[in-house]
Amino acid sequence: MSSIAAANRYAVALFDLAKEQNILDDISAELKVVKQVFQENDTLQKLLQHPKVSSDQKQQLIEESFTGLSVPMGNLLKLLLKKQRMDAITYIVDKFQELLEEERKVANAVVYTVKPLTSEEETMISTTFSKKLGKDTLHITNEIDPSIIGGMKIQIGDTIFDGSVKGQLNRLERELVPGKR
Predict the structure, then answer these.
(1) What is the separation of C-alpha 167 from the centre of its chain, rounded to a whole number of angstroms?
(2) What's the rounded Cα separation, in Å, for the pair 152 and 145?
(3) Among 11-25, 49-63, 118-132, which is the least confidently predicted range?
(4) Residue 1 pLDDT more than 70?
(5) Alpha-carbon distance 8 to 93, whole Å?
(6) What is the pLDDT of residue 6?
(7) Nearest CA among 104, 101, 94, 112 for reference residue 155
């Protein structure tokens, strides 16, 4: 079984438990800290995967590295350690955040423009596209991309709304030039 598939199952189980106990925000915050620790400390990951480090030593290392965690988070880390799946923690965090955003009807968008968006433009885009997607909130990250010439391109998850001049020119070229489809 792949690490990603296992990570998805762990994330869903943790999400369901956190939702049931009404501690979604707490678990989300703890997960972000745990992910940051693993990303910033390569040695920790190597020690937890090293075959010459005993299970008891690994357990102690986890307990010392992550004091003050909630019971569900502590149990998750212990389970991941026991099942030798500590490498899946980043995927678990990402999937949990995805589930949390879905639960709260929140989406994230990257808006590519030639010049920075004003706050009014961000609000208009957020309002318009959140309604189209059936979301309550749309968080926008504005990326400057001079290659689009004008207009904007919006990426929300795997979906791209291309209203850029470059996109329009490319579509026009495909229609006019044979063999360009």
Answers:
(1) 27
(2) 9
(3) 49-63
(4) no
(5) 9
(6) 86
(7) 112
**Confidence (pLDDT) at 142:** 96
The 10 Å Cβ neighbour count of residue 25 is 10
The b-or-e profile of 113-125 (16+ CB within 10 A means b, else e) is: beeebeeeebeeb
Tokens representing 74 are 């502590």
Q: Where are the alpha helices (DSSP H) in 83-148?
A: 89-103, 119-133
List, in order, residues 6 or more apart from 95 with CB less than 8 Å away.
7, 8, 11, 12
Residues 72/86, Cβ–Cβ less than 8 Å:
no
Q: What is the CATH T-level fold of the domain 3-101, as seen in this structure? A: Peroxidase; domain 1 (1.10.520)
Distance CA(20)–CA(30), nearest Å, equals 17
> What are the boundaries of each domain within the chain?
3-101, 106-176
Q: What is the pLDDT of residues 37-67, one digit of tens each?
A: 888 888 888 888 888 888 888 888 888 888 8
Report yes or no: 106 and 157 within 8 Å, Cβ to Cβ: no
Instruction: State the pTM of this model.
Output: 0.74
